[in-house]
Design a protein that fits this description.
The chain has helices spanning 12-15, 21-29, 71-77, 107-110, 112-117, 128-133, 138-161, 206-214, 280-295, 301-312, 337-349, 351-362, 369-388, 391-397, 404-407, 428-437; strands at 2-5, 52-53, 166-172, 177-185, 190-203, 227-239, 246-257, 263-274, 314-315, 320-321, 325-334. Helix 7 packs parallel to helix 12 (351-362) and helix 9 runs antiparallel to helix 12 (351-362). A hairpin with a 6-residue loop joins strand 6 and strand 7 (246-257). Helix content is 37%, strand content 20%. The chain is an alpha+beta fold and 444 residues long. The protein has a nine-stranded antiparallel β-sheet.
Length: 444
């Protein structure tokens, strides 16, 4: 069922998000009281001792192409497409114990978790009683983080677009779990913007288990079954104006329980920018914002994940990248759950300040029919990567219970292919192509 709203309500949560880019940046990272926002049960320090990957024989990172990396779009593939009610959740520190309800009032009215969840796009996928029962569990923390990220990004997009209709689609997966999908289409500023979360569980398919084993994972099944839980937030935003860039981000958590009760876990995600035309100032702002988020947790993270992003979003048959990159990582499982979670949280909080100022800057720029045509051709490249190379898209298409509409939510409303099209030498179109073929360092 989808809800459609013409105008967004101006409740207290929404009012907190109004203002210019500077205020929006502050809102996205802090509560009204000025404290850094943390999900209940989180105690993230400003500086971690560094993140890493599980060890392999060669000492390098492991990339689980079939499942963990597949969740990059596969979680979006298990999510749907729509978007609506927007009120911001106020994050507060976890209390030492469960709050006692006031006499004569339902527990939910006095419950900190219920108050927080009331400002999400929709109620959590997991029942509140279950979330309340395990406040310190990483599954609870991650579900609340992705719901919060979804609500904040949707608010920011709605504020910039100003007047589009939104819908919220809450769905269930018969194999276990469900999601909330939010989509804005044909807005004033955005042609299509989707922000989806999914929280799914069940048993891995044999194909998925084979893919994981092929990457060196030793998984102990019981009666051929391997229970798993996966959750994430995924978004692709396509503005109308060819001078406003497209952005994609995804942050996810995966947990597998083996036959002996041992649980293996890891995080993955990233954020990348795809401009139609190169704007040096925009590129520097975007990358520096992501670097600042990464640097809180280790100076080596941004350069490592920036290169990984450049390598991953490569359209091999074209010899070019999909965009100007950002960060991309997978299989993060050390030094601890809490430290990796804090890193993911920092990255998620960097989405709004890295992107919204760029859209505000360019959404009213004038453009020519030739520039609009080039945008459509570049959107064609976006489609090619997503359908031919993206592991998550392919994983989602072959995952039982996935929703095709959700998997294809990342695709733009319009795109174009022209036979043997080649931009003129020394043109603005040729300039961006050179960057896509030869990635640059944007922060030094």
């Amino acid at each position: 069922m989808a809800m459609h709203l013409g105008k967004l309500s101006a409740g207290s949560c929404w009012l907190a998000a109004r203002g210019g880019c500077g205020e929006l940046r502050s809102w996205s990272l802090r509560c009204a009281a000025g404290r850094f926002c943390r999900p209940p049960g989180t105690a993230c320090s400003e500086q971690s001792r560094g993140l890493g990957y599980g060890p392999t024989a060669g000492g390098g990172p492991r990339l689980r192409t079939g499942l963990a990396a597949g969740l990059a779009a596969g979680l979006a593939g298990l999510a749907a497409a729509a978007f609506g009610h927007v009120e911001r959740a106020e994050m507060v520190s976890k209390s030492s114990g469960a709050p006692s309800p006031s006499p004569g009032r339902p527990e939910e009215e006095d419950d900190e978790l219920a108050r927080r969840c009331s400002c999400f796009m929709a109620s959590p996928v997991t029942d509140l009683h279950e979330l309340r029962r395990r406040p310190g569990d990483m599954k609870t923390k991650m579900e609340l983080l992705i719901l919060e990220t979804q609500a904040q990004v949707c608010q920011a997009l709605a504020q910039v677009d100003g007047g589009a209709r939104f819908s919220v689609d809450r769905w269930e997966r018969k194999e276990g779990g469900g999601g909330i999908s939010c989509v804005l289409q044909d807005g004033h500023v955005f042609e299509k913007a989707g922000v989806s979360i999914s929280v799914v569980h069940g048993n891995l398919s044999e194909e998925a288990a084979k893919q994981m084993r092929s990457r060196g994972k030793k998984l102990k099944t019981k009666d051929g079954k391997l229970p798993f839980c996966a959750m994430g937030v995924s978004s692709v935003i396509h503005p109308k104006n060819p001078h406003a860039p497209t952005i994609h981000f995804n942050y996810r958590y995966f947990e597998v329980e083996e036959a002996d009760g041992n649980k293996q876990w890891w995080f993955g995600g990233g954020c990348d920018l795809t401009p139609t035309y190169l704007n040096q100032e925009d590129a520097v702002h975007f990358h520096r914002t992501l670097k600042k988020a990464c640097d809180q947790h280790g100076p080596d993270l941004y350069p490592k994940f920036k290169k990984w992003c450049d390598d991953y979003f490569f359209i091999a048959h074209r010899g070019e990248r999909r965009g100007i990159g950002g960060i991309f990582f997978d299989d993060l499982d050390s030094p601890s759950k809490e430290e990796v979670f804090c890193f993911v949280q920092s990255c998620a909080q960097a989405v709004i300040p890295s992107y919204i100022p760029l859209v505000k800057k360019h959404c009213d720029d004038s453009f020519t029919p030739r520039e609009k045509l080039w945008q459509q051709l570049r959107r064609g490249r976006y489609v090619e990567f997503n359908l031919l190379y993206d592991r998550g898209t392919k994983f989602g298409l072959f995952t039982p219970g996935s929703r095709i509409e959700s998997i294809l939510m990342s695709l733009p409303l319009t795109a174009r292919w022209e036979y043997m099209h080649s931009p003129s030498e020394n043109s603005k179109e040729a300039e961006i192509l050179d960057v896509l073929r030869h990635p640059r360092d944007w922060v030094h």
